[in-house]
Each structure stands twice: as C-alpha cells, then as structure tokens.
Write a structure and sequence with these properties.
259 residues; alpha+beta; 29% strand; RsuA_PseudoU_synthase; RNA-binding; Pseudouridine synthase
Length: 259
C-alpha cells in the first residue's frame, strides 16, 4: 500500500517556478534555465538548487547564477548616464542650472517605473562621463562606501609630457592635504604636443581627487572623463543619454559590494 503524499509546504505551493523567473529576468530561455539549475549553477538565498519544481518569491528571493546576483524585481531601475561637462550631479537645482534631474524628468516611463531615482556618487560640474542612477538604496549606499573599494576609471587630458616615473609615484601614493592617496593603476594613453592622455584607475571617492592628484605631480587636468565604474563601461554612449544596465552589469555591481 502506497503512502499518502505529503502536502506541499507553503514555500513550494506558492511563488513562481525558478526556471520561469530566470527566463523572465532575461538570463536564459526556460529550457536553458533548467539546464543551469540541473548543473548546480543556480543558488537561491545562498543555497544551490537542483530541483526543477522549486518555487520562489521574486520580490524577496536572492538568486545567483554562476556567483552573480540576478535582478528579479521589475520596480528596481539601474541606469547609466553619460553626464556632459557643465551639468551638476544633482536631481534639482534651486538656481535653475542644468542638472542630472533635468534629463531624468524627460524620461517619464522611468519615473513611472522607479518612483524616485538618485545618483550614485557625484561628478563635479566640469567632469564628464559615467554616472549611475538607481532606486536601489542598499546597492547605491555600498557603491559609495569607501570600504568596498569599487574601482573607478578615468581618462584625463593633462598639460605636459608625462614621464614614466609619474605612474610609479601615483601607485606608491601621493600625500594630499586630506591624507595620502594611491591609484590602483596608471597608464599613458597618448602623447600630444604639450599635452598627454592618461588613464587612472582609483578606489577613492574624495572630492576632486583625480584632479588634485594629477595637479600635485605637475600635470593639471584640462579635461576629465569617467569611463567605468567596476565592470560598467561608458563605451560609445553619447553625452546626455541614459541607458538601462543589463543583467551582467547589475550582477557585477552586486558582486563588487558583496550582495
């Protein structure tokens, strides 16, 4: 005589099948998602899942595929902006100066989805390039916190021909008025008559830190562009344009800050 089947637990009886959630998140087709699960490449709330019938709540579950977190909530927004020079890194300005918020207000569909967006960190008014915007408070907080040491990449046009030893000095550390700073990496991109293009990778988030560093070693910045934050890159995105981050980019940011 066969035993009566046990009722499914509430966690199993409710929610959405894991392979469907992965497919809806754009990770893979449902069939390919099943193969990922069977291969032990999917974790839910820190535990590897191999069962095909597993149901989860997309609003509360934390899902990783190959160690990268997958964004499941459709009310969370992650954007990359190429901030133009001359624009403030604020969502509004009481003096009516051009600011990031002006660009966001033009995208009503984003505001309808996100409710309220905020910028992750700042770029000074004269600095161009990559600025992240989101409504994910925990991720934004960690990306700005110095303890997580998220890499930020800048390309600078500076005055003068940059000698080889400048990179070594910057990697060893430079004493500024608010303490020592060292870069993660430094390279000469191009030499022009009377000017040079250099790339600086730094973990620091102090105000004007790249400009101050390069000025301290005798090469004042004429133009500064942030080209990457972690694995999120500006690429050929045009100034003033917003784009949503893809799953890989969002996952890389989560990974960088331990989420």
């Amino acid at each position: 005589m066969s035993r009566p089947s046990r009722p499914a637990s509430s966690a199993q009886a409710e929610g959405v099948r894991l392979q469907k959630v992965l497919a809806q998140a754009g990770v893979a087709s449902r069939r390919a998602a099943e193969e990922l699960i069977a291969a032990g490449r999917v974790a839910v709330d820190g535990e590897i899942v191999r069962e095909m019938g597993r149901r989860i709540d997309p609003d509360t579950a934390v899902v990783h595929v190959d160690g990268s977190r997958i964004q499941l909530r459709d009310d969370q927004v992650y954007l990359a902006l190429n901030k133009p020079a001359g624009m403030l890194s604020t969502m509004s300005d009481d003096k009516g100066r051009p600011c990031v918020g002006d660009l966001v207000m033009q995208r009503t569909e984003l505001l309808n989805q996100a409710g309220r967006l905020f910028h992750v960190g700042r770029l000074d008014q004269d600095t161009e390039g990559l600025l992240l915007l989101t409504n994910d408070g925990e991720l934004g907080h960690r990306l700005m916190h110095p303890s997580y040491e998220v890499e930020k990449t800048y390309v600078a046009e500076v005055l003068g021909q940059v000698p080889r030893e400048i990179g070594r000095r910057l990697r060893e550390g430079i004493e500024l008025e608010d303490g020592p700073v060292r870069v993660h990496s430094f390279r000469l991109v191009d030499s022009l008559p009377g000017r040079s293009m250099v790339e600086v990778v730094i973990h620091e988030g102090r105000k004007h830190v790249v400009r101050r560093l390069l000025d301290e070693v005798g090469h004042p910045v004429q133009r500064l562009v942030r080209t990457a934050i972690g694995e999120v890159r500006l690429g050929d995105q045009r100034p003033g344009k917003l784009r949503p981050l893809n799953q890989h980019e969002v996952g890389s940011l989560y990974k960088a800050v331990g989420l």
